[in-house]
Structures are given as structure tokens and as C-alpha cells.
Amino acid sequence: MKTIRRRALMTAFAGVLALGLSAASYAQQPTVLKLSHQFPASTGPNGDFRDQLAKNFAAEVEKKTNGSLKIEVYPGSSLMKTRSQFSALRKGTLDMSVLPLAYGSGEVPQVSITLMPALVQGYEQGLRWKTAPIGKALETLLESKGIKIVTWVWQAGGIASRDKPIVKPSDAKGLKVRGGDKNMDLMIQGAGGSPTNLPSSEIYSAMSTGVLDGALTSSTSLISYRLNETSKAVTTARNKSFWYMFEPILISMDAWKRLTPEQQKVVMEVGASLEPFAMAGAKRDDERLAKVYEDAGVTVVDMDQAAFDQWVAIAKETSYKQFAAKVENGQALIDMALAVK
């Protein structure tokens, strides 16, 4: 009887021990977040810096959380279609993204201010939005919609064209041009062009087939999507550009709330620490764009102040007016943005 009892106790103890080990193992499992973006995977130091940004972010977060938080990066829309990402972040079906925020203007019209012509005219000015009233307003708005900004990233853009350079507004007259968002589209229309709205990942095909005559997009996308193969001319952002787009690292509030306070602290610290890397990458690509296109035999031009002023005059009569009239708190947002010098 004692032997039977001893065996029963040993079996019970083994069961408790196994349950304890199982629980400990479960507790040690890292939290895994998935980060989707549309940009090409980078394969070297000259690869798309936005993919490099995502990968560097993932590596640093894992390192600083001692592996308790891992981020899987899915470039090239391999996890989710480009236009689905904003909505998925809001719903919590996507954890993170490096995303042109203006892509979400169909659901949250106010975010289109992050691609308003000439509101931002330089990288340092754009980064100053982060601590200015306009930045705080954007953060509050986005968090109420289910999304949190982790890393502030701005990119200047140029104009690729299938024929002659597009520098001043009259050059766009009668052409089918991709702007990137409704505000750019309104300005293009005001210049006499025909705006076509599609994500940057679809420009190559549209330029190849003649669906587009020209396209505005970031310097990095002009390089990464090999638009030099479909273009005869490009207007760079080296001198002046009215096209500055906000392309931050974002996290779903659902994912954010699943993190421990320590993990949240690391995410935000790492995100902020990578902002100089992002700015340097964007500036580098503004310069590198010219060489890539020159080497491909494409005509490379820069925008001067006179042409820039012509575009801004049109934008104020089209994009600015419509945003102020149609978007809730639109004029207040424009005024806050203009206050950042």
C-alpha cells in the first residue's frame, strides 16, 4: 500500500512539475509583431532605406528587450496590399507598418495634410512638427482612430516623366500625372493636368503602359522602383520641392496595448533614435537620384524658386482652400502647420 501511495505521489509531483515547466516556457515565449510595408526589400547599403529602417528597428527592439519582443518585417507588400494597411492598423489586424500616412485620408481626411504641397519645405522643418502643436494634434487624432506614431520620417519627392521635364505648372498641362494624394491631385488639376491616384508601387507599370505621363513620388521610390527605365526626364528634389510626404513607422493601438510598459518604452526610444538615420537616408537619396538617372541617360533637372512659387500659388487656390472647407478643423491644422518654420 505504501509503495502504491508513493508512486501516486511521485506521479502527481511529476505532473505538477511538468505543468510548472510548461507555464514557465509559455511565459518565456516572445511577443511577436508583424510589420508590413510596400517598399522593395533592401539587399545592401544602397537599398531602400525604408526597408532598412524597418529592419534596424526590429533588430534594436529585439536586442533591447532581450528577445521578449520580436518584430517580423514583410517588405514589398508581401504580407498585405498597400492600400489595405491603414485600415488594418486601425482594426488591429496589422501590428505595424512603415506607411505614407496620406494613404489613409479616405478614412481619416485630416491626415492628408501630411502631403499638402509646400507645407513642409525641408527635413528639419518636418521633424519639428513632432513637438509642435500640429504634431500633437496628429498624434491625438491618430490614437483616437487606433494608430500610434513611433518614428517621424519625411521624404522629399521629384517628378518623373515619359517625355519632357515637368518643372513649372504649365509643363503638366494635358498630362496624366500621379500626385500621391488628393491635395497633390487638386494642384495638378489646377495646373491643367489630369491627376491619377495610385500607390507608388504601381507607378512603373502605369508609366510603362502610358496610363501615366508623369509621376510625383519620393526620391527613394523613384530609385527603388526603377522609374529611370520608364522615364526620359526627372525633376529632382535637390533644390526645391513642394512634395514632402510623411512616411512614419506606425503601430496599431491594439498591438501597443499588448506590450508591457517596458516594451512600450523600448519601442518609442528605438523609434526616436532612428529618426536621424531616416533623415540621412532621405537626403542621400535626393542626391543619389540624380546620378542614377544620369547614368541611365535620363535628362535630370532641378526646380528653381520661380517654378516653385508658381506651384504654391496654385496649391493655395486649390488644395489649401478645399482642405480648409471640406475637412473638419482643416483651417486650424493648416495654420498650425504654417506656424512651424
Average predicted confidence as pLDDT: 92
Largest sheet, described in full? Answer: 7 strands, mixed
CATH superfamily grouping:
Bacterial extracellular solute-binding protein, family 7
**SS field, number of helical segments:** 13
H-E string:
HEHEHEHHEEEHEHEHEEEHHHEHH
Describe the structure using short key phrases.
341 residues; alpha/beta; D-Maltodextrin-Binding Protein, domain 2; 7-stranded mixed sheet; 5-stranded mixed sheet; 13 helices; 12 strands; 16% strand
Question: Layout of SSEs?
Answer:
Elements: H1 2-27, E1 31-36, H2 49-64, E2 69-74, H3 85-91, E3 96-98, H4 123-128, H5 133-144, E4 147-151, E5 154-161, E6 176-178, H6 182-190, E7 194-195, H7 203-209, E8 214-218, H8 219-224, E9 233-236, E10 244-246, E11 249-252, H9 253-258, H10 261-273, H11 275-295, E12 299-302, H12 305-326, H13 330-338
Parallel strand pairs: 1-2, 1-3, 6-7, 6-8, 9-12
Antiparallel strand pairs: 3-11, 4-11, 5-8, 5-9, 5-10
Structural commentary:
With 341 residues, this protein is an alpha/beta fold. The chain has a single domain, classed as D-Maltodextrin-Binding Protein, domain 2 (3-Layer(aba) Sandwich), CATH 3.40.190.170. It is built from 13 helices and twelve strands. Helix 2 runs antiparallel to helix 10 and helix 6 packs across helix 12. The termini are far apart.
